[in-house]
Design brief:
The protein is α/β, with parallel strands linked by helices. The protein has helices at 40-47, 69-75, 91-101, 106-119, 135-147, 165-178, 191-197, 215-222, 226-237; strands spanning 2-11, 14-24, 29-33, 55-60, 63-64, 76-79, 153-157, 183-187, 200-205, 208-213. Strand 7 (153-157), helix 6 (165-178) and strand 8 (183-187) form a beta-alpha-beta unit.
Amino acid sequence: MISVKQLRRSFGPIVAVDGVSFEVQKGQVLGFLGPNGAGKTTVMRILACFLRPDTGTATICGYDILKDPVKVRQALGYLAENSPAYNEMTVGSFLDFVCDARQIFGKQRKNALDRIVPLCSIESVYHQTIETLSKGYMRRVGLAQALIHDPEVLILDEPTDGLDPNQKHEVRQLIKKMAADKCIVVSTHILEEVEAVCSRAIIISRGSILVDSTPEKLKSEHNCSLDEVFRKITQTKVA
């Protein structure tokens, strides 16, 4: 459902993404890992059609990010790193705005809101303005807008950032529940999250993929915890 082919993107003299290729199928949850500045968020922004690659391309559900960006955006849900929203809107009005943009109207909208509001546990803040929300609730609202149209593909950049341990557990359980019939990419710095929800892990550094494997296989091959595997790979292979 996601096919990435030789993506490259530079910002001036800095090569943020350098020849990245991978595929993710329905039923897979891919953990996209790397140190700060590795290129993870740039790849995600390219896949979500927020950035154009210098070279290479990708397809989401068969739609090319360069030739069919509207179709790509319709097929995926994207949770950005900083959960952008309009501060003056209430949570309810913001989700109505997202439904307008997604062309979800009438009974379909009611059904979508009835499903997503309890799913993301935002009932108690539904009538609050975005600017009054805690970081954790901001993250939940961001997740709600990504899920409201029930997309086939999810791209989640740090989905549990700012959440307390109970909230993190809830989001991880939600991701695991959705995994069977969706294609999900999760970027995270929390290695225990990868072990909890991901069936596969890619480690990227300096814009290039270093490893594409499973969490269990990585721990077995290196005979250590995933945290230690991450440090060993990123420190050794970029030296």
